[in-house]
Amino acid sequence: MRKEFDVLAGVYERLRAPLAYKLFAGPFGKYDTAIKSVISALQGKRSDILLDVTTGTGLVFKEFLRVVDGEASIVGIDLSLGMLEQAKKYVKKKQMQDIHLIMADAENLPLLPMTFSKVACSGAFPGFPNPERALKEMSKVIKPGGRISILFLDEPTGYLMQRMLKHIEESHHVPVQLFRPDRIRSLLLDMGFRGVEITKLSGIWRVVTAQK
Ligand SMILES: C[S@@+](CC[C@H](N)C(=O)[O-])C[C@H]1O[C@@H](n2cnc3c(N)ncnc32)[C@H](O)[C@@H]1O
User: Fold this and answer.
1) d(CA 70, ligand 1 centre) in Å
2) Low-confidence ranges of the chain (pLDDT < 50)
3) What is the pLDDT of residues 129-148, one digit of tens each?
4) Ligand 1 test: best mutation among 79, 111, 121, most atoms within 8 Å of CB?
5) Residue 57 has what pLDDT?
6) What is the 10 CA–ligand 1 centroid distance (Å)?
């Protein structure tokens, strides 16, 4: 997966992100609308410290900065150096001081517990080998009272979507991780989150948010 993103980093925002989103959203699904939903669920404010898990080229933290008028401390982590380099170009161009980009695995975060007031994860959850482990890691680094927001895929009920999933799994040789809303809700409750809310987006995309 890391190699795929290293290669596609230059065209990620224009091509890869919108097209990959539409696979499970349908032709009218827009990725920027999904990112807006992930961020609005966080209820961002200027004093926030955001962890953007699998930050990629930084689409998510850019939307967060828009919401908080450019005033926030941000750490973005990703496994792909190519994607992080794209994010770094933006940070450099805008001369942002308080955005820190780290090459790291979402399933093994090299970060101190209870550090972040907001944690976002967009676009990568269906591709994690062990999404429950990633969820535990995110839960560990969030402060009491902090919010989490994750874009995930529900299980499809329609035949066409089920066929497409099977095809993607077979051609990539990896499972696509799907979560029934009840399952992700109970995982978050077990980790000490409350106020779990799940929003339906296009197709089988969903956003889950909760407070620690
Ligand atoms: C579809 S992109 C999403 C990027 C960004 N969050 C967005 O919404 O545009 C997926 C990103 O997840 C990263 N990624 C995948 N698995 C990861 C892992 N275990 N730890 C850290 N990053 C990972 C990839 O390198 C890639 O940049």
Assistant:
1) 23
2) none
3) 999 999 999 999 999 999 99
4) 79
5) 98
6) 14
**Which residues lie closer than 8 Å to 196 by C-beta, 6 or more apart?**
184, 185, 188, 189, 208, 209, 210
Nearest to 29, CA basis, from 181, 206, 148, 209: 206
- For residue 139, what is the enclosing H or E element? helix 131-141
Quickly list H helices, the chain: 2-8, 17-25, 31-40, 59-67, 81-93, 131-141, 159-172, 181-190
Query: Cα dihedral sign for 16, 96, 72, 85?
Result: positive
Give the DSSP H/E element, type plus range, for residue 172. helix 159-172
pLDDT value, residue 136: 98
Q: Measuring from atom 2 of ligand 1, which residue has the nearest CA? A: 123
Count up the domains in the chain and report the number.
1
The range of the structural domain enclosing residue 65 comes to 2-211
CATH value at residue 204: 3.40.50.150
Q: Which residue has the tokens 């908080």?
A: 68
Q: What residue ranges line ligand 1, CB within 6 angstroms?
A: 1-2, 5, 17, 54-56, 59-60, 77-80, 83, 105-107, 122-124, 127-128
Question: Which residue out of 78, 149, 207 has the highest number of ligand 1 atoms within 8 Å of its CB and is therefore the one to mutate?
Answer: 78
Tokens (6 digits) for 197: 């809310």
pLDDT at site 97: 87
CA of 54 from ligand 1 middle (Å) equals: 4
Terminal alpha carbon distance of the chain:
30
Residue 137: what residue type?
A: E
